[in-house]
Design brief:
The chain folds into three domains: 76 residues; 128 residues, Heat Shock Protein 90 (2-Layer Sandwich), CATH 3.30.565; 135 residues, Rossmann fold (3-Layer(aba) Sandwich), CATH 3.40.50. Helix 1 runs antiparallel to helix 2, helix 3 packs parallel to helix 4 and helix 4 runs antiparallel to helix 6. It is an alpha/beta fold and 368 residues long. It has eleven helices and 15 strands. It is globular, with a radius of gyration of 23 Å. Helices cover 45% and strands 21% of the residues.
């Protein structure tokens, strides 16, 4: 159909408008659906579920994958239309925080150079955010879930790097997402380069030769007030305890360790501000880990409770899950990506629910 000589879609929309609408719908569906699929697969592998719960999760996973396939079909129908770039002053810290949170990562994965300052770059705010979300969504999908982001600001513009610890870059080379990112970067006059880490995984480097302003006395928006999380770890094996603490600290979390559940309970009894997360071994001298977590559920209910053990889940563990004493299960020996994904998921849940580490009245504590 032609109206005044301009081709239009069958529903009366002109073709450029229809393409823009399709692109927006595809983007807004694809990235969160990819995150849902990855999270559901991770829960299926990591969590202790009842048969009914596992069946419900399988149904959710199947539905999400089906919708994601239909979204990809819609994406393939959009072709490769030109993207309209409208550069403007963009607060980078705010936009990067929104993008990471949208894909389910804590802002602690982002490193800034320089570390201080509130950089504003002259980029298209929406397309810059979407490009970062595409890269992070691909990390969720192909890279084992563990992401790293580096933002470098200087007189020559902006450098943005996104990496993972997956198998390599092949998946990135075949997706529509990377084609979109490449187009956005090139429209800003920049370049994109994909490399493979010597230790495994890929790293994507993008350059944005745009004007960047760094304020000396920044007023940085606190979009990630719950990060870093305050984590308590109880394990009677010193090597395991130290290794886990080192991993969590490298990921940006505040960590306190204890050699028994009783020691952790005593510490909790003395603090006014409870931890965000408690990670507890099962078999330790003194009070059993499940009993420790059950007490914490009553005395510090805002703390997320994670069981960390080398043994397969038993009936008692399943019962603890059903009663709410245990909220997550991590098996010793799982790789760092699984542990970090568990903590990142807890961090995102706390942001959604608006929870924090509250101060409490000691007189209200439950005595055993």
């Amino acid at each position: 159909m032609d109206i005044l000589g301009e081709p239009t879609a069958p529903d009366g929309l002109d073709q450029p408008t229809e393409r823009r609408l399709r692109e927006g719908v595809v983007h807004d569906l694809r990235n969160p659906l990819s995150a849902v699929v990855r999270l559901a697969e991770s829960i299926n592998e990591r969590e202790v579920l009842t048969p009914d719960g596992r069946a419900e999760l399988a149904g959710l996973l199947q539905a999400a994958k089906g919708t994601l396939r239909r979204t990809e079909d819609l994406a393939s129908a959009t072709g490769e239309p030109p993207i309209e770039i409208l550069p403007g002053p963009t607060p980078l810290r705010e936009v990067v925080a929104l993008a990471t949170r949208h894909i389910g990562y804590p802002s602690s994965i982002v490193q800034w150079e320089p570390r201080d300052g509130d950089p504003t770059a002259r980029v298209d705010r929406d397309h810059f955010r979407r490009a970062l979300e595409h890269l992070l969504a691909n990390v969720r999908r192909y890279g084992g879930g563990t992401a790293s982001v580096m933002v470098q600001c200087g007189p020559d513009g902006l450098n943005l790097e996104v990496g993972d610890r997956g198998a390599g870059s092949a998946d990135f080379e075949q997706g529509h997402g990377l084609q979109y990112v490449q187009h956005v970067v090139e429209q800003h006059g920049g370049t994109i380069d994909i490399g493979v880490r010597p230790t495994g995984g890929i790293i994507i480097r993008t350059t944005w030769p745009v004007e960047v302003e760094l304020r000396e006395d920044p007023s940085i928006p606190d979009l990630d007030a719950e990060s870093p999380l305050n984590v308590y770890v109880a394990d009677d094996e010193a090597l395991v305890r130290k290794a886990l603490a080192r991993l969590l600290r490298m990921s940006g979390y505040l960590v306190q360790t204890f050699d028994s559940g009783d020691a952790m309970l005593e510490a909790l009894d003395e603090v006014d501000e409870v931890p965000d997360v408690v990670i507890c071994d099962a078999d330790m001298p003194g009070t059993h880990g499940l009993d420790v977590l059950a007490q914490i559920r009553l005395t510090a209910p805002s703390a997320a409770r994670v069981l960390y053990t080398a043994y397969q889940p038993t009936g008692r563990v399943v019962e603890a899950f059903n009663k709410g004493a245990v909220q997550r299960f991590i098996r010793k020996g799982q790789d760092a990506a699984e542990i970090e994904a568990c903590l990142a998921g807890l961090a995102e849940e706390r942001k959604v629910l608006g929870t924090s580490s509250p101060r409490r009245d000691k007189a209200q504590r439950v005595e055993f």
